[in-house]
Write a structure and sequence with these properties.
single chain; about 210 residues; two-stranded antiparallel ribbon; 5 helices
Length: about 210
Protein backbone atom coordinates (compact mmCIF):
# COMPACT_ATOMS: atom_id res chain seq x y z
CA UNK A 1 0.00 0.00 0.00
CA UNK A 2 1.36 3.41 -1.02
CA UNK A 3 0.02 6.66 0.43
CA UNK A 4 0.53 10.00 -1.34
CA UNK A 5 -0.20 13.27 0.45
CA UNK A 6 -2.22 15.59 -1.81
CA UNK A 7 -2.32 18.45 0.70
CA UNK A 8 -0.48 21.78 0.84
CA UNK A 9 0.88 22.80 4.24
CA UNK A 10 -0.95 25.72 5.86
CA UNK A 11 1.39 28.51 6.91
CA UNK A 12 1.26 32.27 7.43
CA UNK A 13 2.52 32.74 3.86
CA UNK A 14 0.23 30.26 2.08
CA UNK A 15 -1.47 31.59 -1.09
CA UNK A 16 -5.11 32.53 -0.49
CA UNK A 17 -7.93 33.52 -2.82
CA UNK A 18 -7.60 37.18 -3.90
CA UNK A 19 -9.31 39.47 -1.40
CA UNK A 20 -9.18 36.91 1.41
CA UNK A 21 -7.15 37.50 4.56
CA UNK A 22 -4.32 35.03 4.97
CA UNK A 23 -4.13 32.69 7.97
CA UNK A 24 -2.44 33.61 11.23
CA UNK A 25 -0.74 30.79 13.10
CA UNK A 26 0.60 32.09 16.40
CA UNK A 27 2.14 30.33 19.38
CA UNK A 28 -0.07 30.89 22.40
CA UNK A 29 1.70 28.58 24.86
CA UNK A 30 5.39 27.74 24.99
CA UNK A 31 7.49 24.96 26.49
CA UNK A 32 9.49 27.54 28.45
CA UNK A 33 6.55 29.34 30.10
CA UNK A 34 3.81 26.69 30.13
CA UNK A 35 5.56 23.35 29.79
CA UNK A 36 3.83 22.63 26.47
CA UNK A 37 3.30 24.17 23.06
CA UNK A 38 -0.09 25.23 21.68
CA UNK A 39 -0.84 27.15 18.49
CA UNK A 40 -3.73 29.53 17.89
CA UNK A 41 -5.09 29.07 14.36
CA UNK A 42 -6.97 31.91 12.69
CA UNK A 43 -8.02 31.34 9.08
CA UNK A 44 -10.91 31.35 6.66
CA UNK A 45 -12.75 28.11 5.98
CA UNK A 46 -11.48 27.92 2.39
CA UNK A 47 -7.77 28.10 3.23
CA UNK A 48 -5.21 25.84 1.58
CA UNK A 49 -6.24 22.46 0.24
CA UNK A 50 -9.91 22.57 1.10
CA UNK A 51 -13.40 21.33 0.32
CA UNK A 52 -16.48 23.35 -0.70
CA UNK A 53 -19.90 22.25 0.54
CA UNK A 54 -23.26 22.99 -1.13
CA UNK A 55 -23.80 25.37 1.82
CA UNK A 56 -20.97 27.50 0.38
CA UNK A 57 -23.28 28.59 -2.46
CA UNK A 58 -26.81 27.70 -1.40
CA UNK A 59 -28.22 28.97 1.95
CA UNK A 60 -30.21 25.77 2.42
CA UNK A 61 -27.50 23.53 1.00
CA UNK A 62 -26.01 20.83 3.21
CA UNK A 63 -22.95 21.76 5.26
CA UNK A 64 -19.91 19.49 5.59
CA UNK A 65 -20.57 18.65 9.23
CA UNK A 66 -24.00 17.27 8.28
CA UNK A 67 -22.71 15.11 5.41
CA UNK A 68 -22.07 11.44 6.08
CA UNK A 69 -18.34 10.72 6.30
CA UNK A 70 -18.70 8.24 3.43
CA UNK A 71 -19.05 11.29 1.16
CA UNK A 72 -15.40 12.14 1.75
CA UNK A 73 -13.93 8.75 0.79
CA UNK A 74 -14.14 6.85 -2.46
CA UNK A 75 -12.54 5.40 -5.57
CA UNK A 76 -10.87 8.10 -7.64
CA UNK A 77 -8.91 8.76 -10.80
CA UNK A 78 -6.69 11.55 -12.06
CA UNK A 79 -7.35 13.01 -15.51
CA UNK A 80 -4.25 14.50 -17.11
CA UNK A 81 -5.17 17.90 -18.55
CA UNK A 82 -1.67 19.39 -18.53
CA UNK A 83 -1.90 19.97 -22.28
CA UNK A 84 -4.68 22.53 -21.81
CA UNK A 85 -3.15 25.98 -22.41
CA UNK A 86 -3.33 28.94 -20.06
CA UNK A 87 -6.89 30.22 -20.03
CA UNK A 88 -8.06 27.06 -21.80
CA UNK A 89 -10.94 24.74 -21.08
CA UNK A 90 -11.05 21.08 -20.11
CA UNK A 91 -13.80 19.88 -22.42
CA UNK A 92 -15.80 16.64 -22.53
CA UNK A 93 -13.14 14.95 -24.69
CA UNK A 94 -11.04 14.49 -21.53
CA UNK A 95 -13.88 12.50 -20.02
CA UNK A 96 -14.47 10.49 -23.19
CA UNK A 97 -10.84 9.46 -23.67
CA UNK A 98 -10.70 8.26 -20.04
CA UNK A 99 -14.26 6.95 -19.93
CA UNK A 100 -13.61 3.54 -18.37
CA UNK A 101 -11.62 5.04 -15.49
CA UNK A 102 -14.13 7.86 -15.04
CA UNK A 103 -17.05 5.42 -14.91
CA UNK A 104 -15.34 3.40 -12.17
CA UNK A 105 -14.44 6.44 -10.08
CA UNK A 106 -16.49 8.38 -7.53
CA UNK A 107 -14.09 11.33 -7.42
CA UNK A 108 -12.64 12.86 -10.58
CA UNK A 109 -9.44 14.84 -10.06
CA UNK A 110 -8.08 17.02 -12.86
CA UNK A 111 -4.33 17.57 -13.08
CA UNK A 112 -3.77 20.88 -14.88
CA UNK A 113 -0.14 21.28 -13.85
CA UNK A 114 -0.98 24.63 -12.26
CA UNK A 115 0.61 23.48 -9.01
CA UNK A 116 3.97 24.55 -10.48
CA UNK A 117 2.92 28.18 -9.83
CA UNK A 118 2.16 27.60 -6.14
CA UNK A 119 3.56 30.52 -4.16
CA UNK A 120 3.83 32.74 -7.25
CA UNK A 121 1.58 35.51 -8.52
CA UNK A 122 0.96 33.40 -11.62
CA UNK A 123 -1.06 30.97 -9.47
CA UNK A 124 -3.90 33.51 -9.54
CA UNK A 125 -3.77 33.79 -13.32
CA UNK A 126 -5.71 32.19 -16.16
CA UNK A 127 -5.67 28.58 -14.97
CA UNK A 128 -7.57 25.94 -17.00
CA UNK A 129 -11.14 25.19 -15.94
CA UNK A 130 -13.66 22.52 -16.83
CA UNK A 131 -16.50 23.20 -19.27
CA UNK A 132 -20.13 23.37 -18.20
CA UNK A 133 -20.66 20.12 -20.11
CA UNK A 134 -18.06 18.36 -17.98
CA UNK A 135 -19.64 19.76 -14.81
CA UNK A 136 -23.08 18.51 -15.84
CA UNK A 137 -21.64 15.11 -16.77
CA UNK A 138 -20.21 14.66 -13.27
CA UNK A 139 -23.52 15.66 -11.69
CA UNK A 140 -25.61 13.44 -13.97
CA UNK A 141 -23.32 10.45 -13.33
CA UNK A 142 -23.63 10.76 -9.55
CA UNK A 143 -20.02 11.44 -8.70
CA UNK A 144 -19.13 12.31 -5.12
CA UNK A 145 -16.83 15.14 -6.05
CA UNK A 146 -14.39 16.93 -8.30
CA UNK A 147 -10.87 18.09 -7.44
CA UNK A 148 -8.27 20.31 -9.08
CA UNK A 149 -4.69 21.45 -8.52
CA UNK A 150 -5.54 25.14 -8.81
CA UNK A 151 -7.23 27.73 -6.61
CA UNK A 152 -10.76 27.53 -7.98
CA UNK A 153 -13.28 25.55 -9.98
CA UNK A 154 -14.37 28.77 -11.70
CA UNK A 155 -12.07 31.39 -13.24
CA UNK A 156 -11.31 34.21 -10.82
CA UNK A 157 -13.03 36.54 -13.29
CA UNK A 158 -16.34 34.64 -12.91
CA UNK A 159 -17.81 36.28 -9.82
CA UNK A 160 -21.11 34.46 -10.46
CA UNK A 161 -19.34 31.13 -9.69
CA UNK A 162 -21.20 29.41 -12.51
CA UNK A 163 -19.52 26.01 -12.22
CA UNK A 164 -19.88 26.00 -8.43
CA UNK A 165 -23.63 26.41 -8.87
CA UNK A 166 -23.81 23.46 -11.29
CA UNK A 167 -21.77 21.09 -9.11
CA UNK A 168 -23.07 22.05 -5.66
CA UNK A 169 -26.73 22.17 -6.56
CA UNK A 170 -26.55 18.39 -6.19
CA UNK A 171 -26.06 17.94 -2.46
CA UNK A 172 -24.15 14.68 -2.83
CA UNK A 173 -21.20 16.44 -4.49
CA UNK A 174 -18.28 18.44 -3.11
CA UNK A 175 -15.49 20.48 -4.68
CA UNK A 176 -11.83 20.09 -3.69
CA UNK A 177 -9.40 22.89 -4.56
CA UNK A 178 -5.64 23.45 -4.22
CA UNK A 179 -4.62 19.80 -4.48
CA UNK A 180 -0.98 18.88 -5.03
CA UNK A 181 1.17 15.89 -6.03
CA UNK A 182 -1.36 14.58 -8.55
CA UNK A 183 1.58 13.83 -10.85
CA UNK A 184 2.71 11.09 -8.44
CA UNK A 185 -0.43 9.01 -8.96
CA UNK A 186 -0.49 8.18 -12.65
CA UNK A 187 -3.44 6.50 -14.35
CA UNK A 188 -4.26 3.74 -11.90
CA UNK A 189 -7.40 3.75 -9.78
CA UNK A 190 -6.91 4.67 -6.13
CA UNK A 191 -8.79 5.39 -2.93
CA UNK A 192 -9.17 9.07 -2.11
CA UNK A 193 -9.56 10.07 1.53
CA UNK A 194 -10.36 13.79 1.91
CA UNK A 195 -11.59 14.48 5.43
CA UNK A 196 -12.64 18.07 6.20
CA UNK A 197 -12.27 19.75 9.56
CA UNK A 198 -15.65 19.21 11.23
CA UNK A 199 -17.14 22.43 12.55
CA UNK A 200 -20.73 23.55 12.83
CA UNK A 201 -22.52 24.77 9.67
CA UNK A 202 -19.33 24.48 7.64
CA UNK A 203 -19.58 26.01 4.14
CA UNK A 204 -16.10 24.67 3.48
CA UNK A 205 -13.10 23.46 5.41
CA UNK A 206 -9.40 22.65 5.12
CA UNK A 207 -8.83 18.95 4.47
CA UNK A 208 -6.02 16.41 4.68
CA UNK A 209 -6.33 14.63 1.35
CA UNK A 210 -4.40 11.44 0.62
CA UNK A 211 -4.34 8.95 -2.22
CA UNK A 212 -4.09 5.28 -1.22
CA UNK A 213 -2.71 3.09 -4.01
Amino acid sequence: MKIIDLTHTISNTIPVYPGTEGPNLSISNTYEEDGFKETLLKMFSHTGTHMDAPHHIFPKGISLDKKDASGFVGKACVIDATDVPEGGMIDISYIERNKERVERAEFILFRTGWEKYWGQDAYFGEYPVISKEVARYLVEHNKKGIGLDNIGLDPISDTALTLHHIILEKETMVIIENLCNLDLIGEEDFLLVALPLKFENSDGAPIRAVAIL
